[in-house]
Fold this sequence. Notes:
Elements: E1 3-7, H1 13-24, E2 29-34, E3 38-40, H2 45-48, E4 59-61, H3 62-66, E5 72-75, E6 78-82, E7 87-90, E8 93-96, E9 99-102, E10 107-108, H4 128-143, E11 148-152, H5 160-175, E12 184-188, H6 204-214, E13 217-220, E14 223-229, E15 232-238, E16 244-251, E17 254-258, E18 261-262, H7 265-268, E19 294-296, H8 319-337, E20 351-356, E21 361-367, E22 375-380, H9 382-401, H10 407-416, H11 418-422
Parallel strand pairs: 1-2, 1-9, 2-5, 9-19, 11-12, 11-17, 12-13
Antiparallel strand pairs: 3-4, 6-7, 7-8, 10-18, 14-15, 15-16, 20-21, 21-22
Helix pairs in contact: 1-8, 9-10
Bound molecules: flavin-adenine dinucleotide.
EC number: 1.8.5.4
GO molecular function, one term: nucleotide binding
Family: Belongs to the SQRD family.
Amino acid sequence: MAKVIVLGAGTGGMPAAYEIKEQLGNGHEVVLINEKPEFRFVPSNPWVAVGWKKAEAITIPIEKYVSKKGIQFLCGRVESIDANNNQLTVNGEQVDYDYLVIATGPKLAFSNIPGAGPDGFTQSICTLDHALSSYKDFQALLENPGPVVVGAFQGASCFGPAYEYAFILDKALRDAKIRHKVPMTFVTSEPYIGHLGLGGVGDSKSMLESDLRHRDIKWICNASVDEVQQGKMNVSEMNHKGELDSKHELNFNHAMLIPPFSGVDAVANVESLCNPKGFVITDEFQRSPAYPNIFSGGVCVAIPPVEDTPVPTGTPKTGYMIETMMTAIAHNLKSIIIDGAEPSAKGTWQAICLADMGDTGAAFVAIPQIPPRNITWYKKGKWVHLAKIAFEKYFMRKMKTGNSEPVYEKYILKALGIERLEK
Ligand SMILES: Cc1cc2nc3c(=O)[nH]c(=O)nc-3n(C[C@H](O)[C@H](O)[C@H](O)COP(=O)(O)OP(=O)(O)OC[C@H]3O[C@@H](n4cnc5c(N)ncnc54)[C@H](O)[C@@H]3O)c2cc1C
């Protein structure tokens, strides 16, 4: 009997545990470890931050549901991994594994920028706790309207949620009839609006610029934030050579910027497992070249950058990619453990994303993720807003039922007509 540990029960890890259990059956043990007892659906955090969604709607207890499928759940933060001896330490105890699947998501590297993050002076929507705390700051903004800064710090790789939050916040402020009292600035390390860490997708530049213009949101690109203080942000705007072009001092009553991501400490500290940023290096089968019994998927894996930018940016890892990585891991574990065969299943490097804009939305598709591409496709409409609401519903239902049907394959790709696009 093989024992597989899935470390991290987020957007990637919890479905992975279900799918691995389904592939391996009852003859093998699957243990899911997560630092919190609940699963939290990260993509809905921007809605929580303006009070459109309650935390309970995107949170479910992990053990109650995974135990129905014969998966053990262990709640605790993994402090270290001894990859040479197939052991990890959690809650001060050693736990053995035969195979380890790392799905620990990102470490939020606010500490790279003085004064950044919820321990400093800017808000975050990267975790549910951050989004809830940001909601309090939003409520204070309603009481005391003033300038707002939204965007992504230097080194960030996840730009979609920054745009989402800017547009959602704009809508929430219009609903509250105080938008005219809130000057908004979008501050981003991207070289141009709509770059998205992907070198742009179709007309994402002109369309997102147009949307920002229509909503009276100014922007600063190639931005490197020097320091944040209470109600004030010092920003250096660079030119295309990465040299200083101009300095900005932005006052704010509310600021939310996405930080750079790195790998979580317990994973980053394992010798030869990760790249210098602490992201797990994997081969095309999501397997570590250094430790063949370790697999990894989700935001914690290393992926190649799309291109150099004057201010550092990274490449996003989005839901469809994560879903396919996890499916590949489940099939590869079956090949190794049950069939005695070599792994052969691969994830995809395709970026397919739905970005909510409050009352409308934008969908983009980049196939492959790195240009030149076979397909670049970007479209806007209220249907994206509705699709995003439906996506959350399907995903939460999947986490409760434990079915392993791929949400992106079954719903999103069909809705976008991607199968047709690929032909
Ligand atoms: C605000 C936001 C919105 C996003 N919206 C979208 C979107 O709309 N569409 C899209 O495609 N992508 C989106 N993404 C990108 C991506 O899909 C999400 O970040 C997704 O949650 C990543 O899944 P993951 O499993 O890799 O990491 P996570 O979902 O972050 O899960 C990691 C899990 O590991 C646990 N963990 C970490 N370290 C340890 C440890 N040492 N011990 C125990 N447990 C640990 C964490 O507590 C967490 O539960 C968004 C990202 C953010 C930040």
